Amino acid sequence: MIQLPDFHSGRYGCSEIGLVLVSGKYQAADYLKSCESGSLISVPFSGKNLMRDKKSGAIIIDLRS
What we know:
This protein has 65 residues and is mainly beta. Helix content is 12%, strand content 35%. Strand 1 and strand 2 form a beta hairpin. The radius of gyration is 11 Å and the shape is globular.
């Protein structure tokens, strides 16, 4: 689990679209804390308005709390 700006937490992961950064705050961050490395999670993703992490280039998937 990594700490991100604006009270967000996140985890990097592999997906069918490549490297992703799943992030969120509050309840979403609590959920991410419960995910162990290697966990398979299912998250909604529309593929529109893709934002990328500046450091890694990972696609950011924001979990709404």
